[in-house]
Amino acid sequence: MRLIKDLTNFQVSTFIKTAQPSGLILFMGTPIGGHQRMRRANTDDFLALELDSGYVRLTMNLGAGAHTMEYNKLFVADNVWTKVTVERIGKVIKLDVSREDVDSEPIEGVLPGRYSVFNLDPKVSKIFVGGIPAGVEVDHHILSTSFDGEMEDLQLNDQFVGLWNFMSNGTSNNYQRGAVQRDRFMDLLPVTGLRFNGDGYAALGTGYRFERLFGLQLKFKTYAEDGILFMIIGAPRQYISVFMEEGHVIFQFNLGTGTASMRSVETYNDGEFHVLEASRDRKQGLLKIGSEAVTQESPGSADTFSNVPDAMYFGGYPGEHDFHDVTNNDFSGCIDGVSLDKQTVDLSKSMETLGTAPGCPTQVASLVSWNEHAPGYVQFDSPEENGLQLVFKFKTNHADGLIFYAATQNLNSYLSLSLVDGTLILRDAPGGELNTGSYDKYNDGEWHVVIATREHNQLRLDIDDFKTYSVQVPQEAERFDGPVFFGGVSDEKLPQATGTNFIGCIGDTTLNGKIVNFVESQSVLNAVFQQCPLHKSTILPSVDPEVEDSSEVPIVATGETEIDETPPSPEPTPYRPPAPPTTTTTPTTTKSTTTTVVTEAITTTEEAEPMDSCALPLVPEEEEVPLTEGYRFGKSKESSIFLAFLVKHS
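Structure for Laminin subunit alpha, as requested:
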């Protein structure tokens, strides 16, 4: 299974049904010792979802030791379908266990220590569902290595993970016979819309009229300024597109002899649903949204859209198109209520999707950015506790900028975090200053994860889970009960806040253990939500062919700064599953014929499948089906049945 890319936040969910009080639902992470094959990783990070005494148990380690949370509000080992969801931003993690007709609230915790990156590697880290293979060493806090029950709809970051395209049936504990679909958590009203993550699209067939007439209606909501809502490309120089630019909606088409472009006066990236209509009758175009209506006629003689392709796209376009006056940014937000030529279009039935999720669930605006032509800020209420811990990621190409500022109401004390010539500086007044030295530069256009802490008599910076800088200061930490800003300040008279505004992106932020939703700010200037205009990049570490030299160039620090690049605790004691038996054993099945997983991890003497291929056999097992009961498909290539349509005339 493909590992998650964004290592500072994720969501995992699945449905389970079991009568057993113990079992492993999911393991995602690095087996013991795997970090030695990973670049810039000191620990074997992991997440494990288990059942313990009939309750769901979550264990996670980002490097500071295993932290366990148990959802003891709901007993789930009673053979009833249950949904399990894990959400994480920074060091804040939530666990929710829910059932139909049962009120439940998620439990929330803050992971300990100075680590906030979930270090995974596609060649070293593993995802195991329903068990851990014998011979794989995992942390001793993981209690189970197998699962007896049923599982359905596993999702990682809103993307469905197929449970039948696994790479290895490593525990030999899968019946490979499927299960009856769950009878709980079924939507009575089918979902017709999609949420787009800003890096994908939905492709549908073009069984509609496009040549002379075009009529599109949809509703959308977004915080992003730019993105493709609809796109279809025909003959050379021909296209029809609806997209957003700087928050405005634009309907644009070219039939081959010139472009017609209709642009809304108002902006609509306010996070609320808006309904738009875009229509064309030969050369005449019309855009309606809200109380606005804009018309324009395309130039030239062409009045027909020809060479209609097999696919049209919503929410984005695969790769990049060549029409320079149409954005290539994919849409980040929700699209629903789509109709073409007054026929309902169900986006959930797209023939191909990427970066989408069904429906339009509530989403935290965890990303904010500013560009150099429009610097600004967002302002929030002050945190409640004494001291301060800020966890976030950022990306920029600019060497200078004020990232964060907090002060007391009387403005006698403040804390700021800035970039100065590419160096991070954490400044406390009255108190002291901490900087990362001139060797490391953080304006390289890559994501960097930072924990900035002011507590007791210490200032500390933890960067990318790899380097730590700290300095002792004379004053105890106090409560910053005044203004809090990201990206800049509203009043340049604030002490030591007159530096350059930050240009770049800030995301996945928590302040004193509380998730920061940037759209809930008190005041905002020129902030763009849920989009990062810099070139896309990830912090997914790479694997070196051999373990590289761990020596580092000395880091220059100022004052009495202490630098620590060692993990805070020794490696956890490995858990070693019991030695495999010398002969193949047969699992004891339960009475249910739909159980997909059994209780014991089994090993066989057969050669394992290559890890880069599907573990299911290319030739399906023979299973005779009486003709009176049904037909068996898949025994031969393109197996199918053709039925004649009968029409009765009266």
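The chain has three domains: 1-187+568-619, 194-358, 367-529.
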